[in-house]
Structures are given as C-alpha cells and as structure tokens.
Amino acid sequence: MYMKTIITTGLAAGVAMLAVGMLILNPLFMKLFPEFQAVYENSTIFRSMEDPLMMLFMGYPLVLGFALAWVWNKTKGHFQGSLWQQAWQFSLVYFAVAGVP
Q1: Which single residue of 24, 46, 86, 95 has CA 20 to 30 Å from 76?
Q2: What is the dihedral of CA 89, 17, 37, 42, to 10 degrees?
Q3: Dihedrals φ, ψ of 33, to 5°?
Q4: Percent of the chain with pLDDT over 90
Q5: CA 33: distance to chain centroid?
Q6: What digits encode the pLDDT tens for the residues 38-65?
Q7: Confidence bin at 92 (pLDDT 50/70/90)
Q8: Taking the CB of residue 85, how many other CB atoms lie within 10 A of it?
Q9: In sequence order, what are the residues at sequence separation of 6 or more whose Cβ sits closer than 8 angstroms to the Cβ of residue 13?
Q10: 64, 14 contact by CB (below 8 A)
C-alpha cells in the first residue's frame, strides 16, 4: 500500500508539474519576455527539441514528483492544520531548501 501511494501521488504530481510548465508557464514567459525565445531557439547554445536527449527535460518533473511524494509521505506528520495548510507549509519548506540556495 505504501509504494502504491507513492507511485500514484508521484505520477500525478509529475504530470501536473509537466502540464503546468508546458501549457501555462512556458507560453506566459515567452509572452512576457520575448527575447528569451530567441535565446532558446539559438542552436549554438541549446539543443533543438527534435534531439532525443531533450526528452530528458520531460522526465525531470516526473522524477521530482516521485521524490516529493516520498518526502511528503515521510514528513506529513510534522505539519499542522488542514490538508491545504499542510501542503502550503510543505511547499514553503521545499522553497526554502531548494529555491533559496
């Protein structure tokens, strides 16, 4: 039961992060900062999206989703309040650990 919960939660989180990143954040940032698109399309700096190695970028949210699901399962007892309050507290801790440095 433990592994099934980690796998389903991790997969759901990974797919959600991938969808939000590709469908919402990417177009939003390309509209807000059009000069970024020219930089990303520069093939001397970045590989093209047709390169098979670029598929690894699609796997990153999935791996992160599994890792965060495992960490959440280990630490959820340390957070107080409703599920949404616990998720907010967890995301603040994750930001402090991964975002600030």
Answers
A1: 24
A2: 110
A3: -130, 80
A4: 63
A5: 21
A6: 888 888 888 887 888 888 888 999 999 9
A7: very high
A8: 11
A9: 64, 65, 66, 68, 69
A10: yes
